[in-house]
Amino acid sequence: MAGNQKAKAKAEQAKGKVKEAAGRAVGNESVEAEGRMKGAKGDARQAKEKVKDVFKH
User: Fold this and answer.
1) Do residues 24 and 36 make contact, with C-beta atoms less than 8 angstroms apart?
2) Nearest-angstrom CA–CA distance, 51 and 45
3) What percent of the chain has pLDDT over 70?
4) How many other CB atoms sit within 10 Å of the CB of residue 28?
5) Which residues contact residue 4 at a Cβ distance below 8 angstroms, ignoring those fewer than 6 apart?
6) Burial track 12-27 (b if 16+ CB lie within 10 A, e otherwise)
7) What is the rounded CA–CA span in Å between residue 17 and residue 6?
8) Residue 55 exposure: Cα atoms within 13 Å on the Cβ side
9) How many CA atoms lie within 13 A of 36 on its CB side?
10) Which pLDDT tens digit goes with each residue over 2-20?
11) Nearest-CA neighbor of 29 among 19, 39, 41?
């Protein structure tokens, strides 16, 4: 299960980066902000999984 959550975190980070870059490319600040938010959510999910790994071992 943890591997699945880690994969979701990486996917969310990647989607956020793509959306942020697309927003920046077309000059749409709203889309760029959504991308940053999605990336941050992926970062938080990844951090949570790392903490869980520390306590698991």
Assistant:
1) no
2) 10
3) 95
4) 14
5) none
6) bbeebeebbeebeeee
7) 17
8) 6
9) 8
10) 688 889 999 999 999 999 9
11) 19
Burial of 35 (0-12, 13-18, 19+ CB in 10 A): buried
Q: What percent of the chain has pLDDT over 90?
A: 75
What separation in angstroms does the CA of 30 have from each of 12, 20, 39, 41? 18, 9, 14, 17
5 with 45: CB under 8 angstroms? yes
Cβ 35 vs Cβ 19: under 8 Å: yes
The span from the CA of 43 to the CA of 54, in Å, is: 17
